[in-house]
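Human: For the file, kindly provide a plain-text protein record giving the amino acid sequence and the backbone structure tokens, at your earliest convenience.
Assistant:
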Amino acid sequence: MTMPCDKLLIFDLDETLIHTSLSQLDRPADFMFETYHVYQRPFAEEMIRVLGEHFDMAVWSAGSEDYVNVIVARIFPALENLKFVWSRSRCRMQMDPETMEEVAVKNLRKVKQPGHPLEKILIVEDTMANVSRNYGNAIYVKPFDGSEVDDELRRLCKYLMSIKDVPDVRKIDKRGWRGAGH
């Protein structure tokens, strides 16, 4: 039985932990979802295993509920340990003033749970507009394009381990996390 963790770590899916494509890339997909070839980001499994010992985890994606549930079941081996799995229905759709495109905004105020106030919540996301209301809680990763040559999650895991005991994650400037020497 694992002990409850101090911090809640929320992962986005598309272009953060996986990449999907209607056509096969230069290698076979890790798995399929309907007609989509799904490529898991390198080091995802190891990162989830390591961080799962130190963080409570959840998933919040702008994908459909069916899609999110299938993907999460494939990449999170201990599905029952996730605090929640949310899809597009928990997002608020709004226009991004910079791109003039509709974005799925994830407002972390919806997440408030006993033991996880905002100062203890981190969200890993590839799209800034999706968590613009909670930028102090966000760690932005480079969008994953399906490449086998990608060390973003290995570096992210190391960084997250270095800040796991910080009392208020919002007070850390996370913009330069790749080079942070915490």
Summary: The mean pLDDT is 92. The two ends are 29 Å apart (CA to CA). Residues 152-163 form the longest helix (12 residues). Residues 111 and 118 are 8 Å apart (CA to CA).
